[in-house]
Amino acid sequence: MARLLKTPFGYRINLDASVGKGGANGRSDVGTLQFALRQIYRANDKPDPYNTGTTLKSPDGGVLEVDGGYGPQTSDYIEAYQTWRRMRPEIWGQLPGVTGVFEQGGLGWRFMTPQNDAVSAYGRPLVDQMTTVGFVPQWLLAQFIGT
Known about the structure:
The structure is a single chain. By secondary structure, the chain is mainly alpha-helical. The chain has one domain. It is built from 6 helices and 4 strands, in the order E-E-E-H-H-H-E-H-H-H. The strands form 2 sheets. The chain has a two-stranded antiparallel ribbon. A hairpin with a 2-residue loop joins strand 1 and strand 2 (10-14). Helix 1 (27-43) packs across helix 4. It is globular.
């Protein structure tokens, strides 16, 4: 279950377990990652929002569904994001190989990476973005704001 944490740097969202190939894929963890990735892909409709000289393209030409289910679409979006993020190590540093998985801890891909990208793109904490965009399912909002 994804959780909202208050830190000295503001509110952050933590996943309780891994999301991706072979992961635990809990509904709120998957939904939270789907939302973060959807925000990142939306930001890439703008010209080079991260000043990387690269553009992140939707792997299926569509929009990632925020439904909390891990399936082929979510898998493709995770792998495309990880591949894109690794394209500029001089900007972002060395990152793990493309695994198709996000973890809360460990040495692999951490959820903090897409969460920070979504925050950078919109200048607001991810949970704030969830309350204003209009496409977040009620079950996911309730996870963080108790609606």
